Amino acid sequence: MRILVLEDNQFIASIITASLKSSESELLIVKDQFEAEKYFKEQIPDILISDIHMEQGTSLDFLKEVRKYPQTKVVVVSSDFERLMEVEENIGLKNWSYISKNNRKWLMLIKTEILSFLKANNSSTASPIS
């Protein structure tokens, strides 16, 4: 399983990496929407975890393109709840998930989304994520 993480905050990216490293997945962390676009088109990931706010703008244009790939599970995260709702209403698809980083259990919620995706797709890599 391929997981692409778009997160420009190095600290948060390292937390996500540490928590998903035991999942036996191919994990790629990128820090801007341009890098994400490049890697997304080269190897369409099974799961995309995307922050919205980047130092160089937002990932909104990238997320609009991702809509063309409904087979990819998308988890949008942000500390800006209103922006999350904007993405859900104007860009997202019904199978996308939206998680606020202001929720102190945000990392657990991301892991739950990944495990749900694995179970729904009968993945042989559906192992517990520590």
From TrEMBL:
Key words, A-Z: Phosphoprotein
InterPro entries for the chain: Bact_response_regulator, CheY-like_superfamily, Sig_transdc_resp-reg_receiver
Domain Response regulatory: 2-116
Name of a matching Pfam family: Response_reg
Gene Ontology biological process terms in this record: phosphorelay signal transduction system
Protein's UniProt keywords contain Oxidoreductase: no
Positions of post-translational 4-aspartylphosphate modification: 51
The keyword Phosphoprotein is annotated on this UniProt entry: yes
Xref: PROSITE patterns: RESPONSE_REGULATORY
Organism domain of life: Bacteria
Protein name: Response regulator
